[in-house]
Each structure stands twice: as C-alpha cells, then as structure tokens.
Write a structure and sequence with these properties.
Oligomer: single chain
Number of strands: 5
Distance between the termini: 51 Å
Radius of gyration: 15 Å
Structural class: alpha/beta
C-alpha cells in the first residue's frame, strides 16, 4: 500500500477521522487496541484495514506501511502515547506529516508556580 493514511486509535475521535477519510475516498489503515464492534465492522466494510494492537509497537507501524504512508494520525485518548507514536513515525519516515491529538490539561496558578 502506498499513499494511505494510518490512524492510530479508534475511539470517538479516531472513528470520525476514519469515517471522514473514507468519505473523501482515501485509503486508511487503523491500528487500535480496541474499538466498538459496530465501528470495526463499519470501517472494515468500507475496505479499511484494521490491525489490533498497540501503535507504540514499532513493528505494527512498519506492518501498517508507515514508510509508504501519506500521513500518520495519532488520536488515542492518551497524550504521551500519541507523542510516542508521532516520534516513532518520524524516526521511521522523517518526512511524513503527523497529526497528534493532545488534551489541554486544566490547571490553576498553583500548578505553574505563579
């Protein structure tokens, strides 16, 4: 596969990203540890390849075709996991665009030493 998108994580955000890319006619591979059964069936029915596993496992990124992919989207619900996936993807394919989902953590003045 060449020129496809790799989406890491298929929770609420990941499913919507995969759905949108599919409606745009893009080829998608998903790496996810888990997802709702109905979402898995829906995306697989559209031809999306799904690999069940941890996208932090470099082997899965390679098997998903990171070196030939158009972009990687790390959209799990864990910031550090998404950052690690992004760094691994860039190490394996330095020119690949990577989109990373990050949450804003609430804080107050005491958290930043003000």
């Amino acid at each position: 596969m060449k020129g496809h998108f790799i989406v890491c994580g298929m929770g609420h955000v990941g499913y919507r990203v995969v759905d949108l890319l599919g409606r745009l006619g893009e080829t998608v591979t998903v790496i996810t540890q888990s997802a709702r059964a109905e979402w898995l069936h829906a995306v697989q029915a559209r031809g999306v390849q799904v690999r069940i596993g941890d996208a932090q496992d470099e082997r899965l990124l390679v098997e998903a075709g990171v070196r030939e992919a158009q972009a990687v989207l790390a959209v799990t619900d864990q910031d550090l996991v998404n950052i690690e996936i992004a760094l691994d993807a860039k190490r394996l394919h330095p020119d690949i665009p990577v989109v990373v989902r990050l949450f804003e953590q609430p804080y107050d003045d005491r958290d930043v030493g003000v």
